[in-house]
Amino acid sequence: MTTNSKNRDGRIREAIRRALLEEWDPIGVAGIAQAQDEYDAYVSTIFEMLVSRKTKQQVLDYLWWLETRYMGLAGNRQATERFADRLLQIPDVR
Q: Model's pTM, two decimal places?
């Protein structure tokens, strides 16, 4: 992997991390300093989904599973769908 690829991957991962915390944040921890890494465990999976060109539906299904099954929340399907669209717009992913 070249330095440019590593830098690009790092930028994409950081964009995903920020988006999860600042835009998705289903449990509302964005304002809690000690919880800034709350969604970091999902970054790698989402990164791989995006760079391997998974469909919007596949990204949405993963996010929906995280919210409703893994976290046990009621979820907001429309908001989650908008967020899946947002992830697909991260520069350099596609």
A: 0.92
Cβ neighbours for 24, distance < 8 A, ≥ 6 positions apart: 39, 63, 80, 83
Residues 48-73: pLDDT tens digits? 999 999 999 999 999 999 999 999 99
Q: How many helices (H) and strands (E) does the chain have?
A: 4, 0
Domain residue ranges of the chain, discontinuous segments joined by +:
3-88
Question: What is d(CA 91, CA 94) in angstroms, rounded to the nearest whole number?
Answer: 8
Picking from 20, 1, 14, the residue whose alpha carbon sits closest to that of residue 92 is 14
Instruction: Kindly calculate the radius of gyration of the chain based on its CA atoms and give it in whole angstroms.
Output: 13
Distance CA 58, CA 27 (A): 22
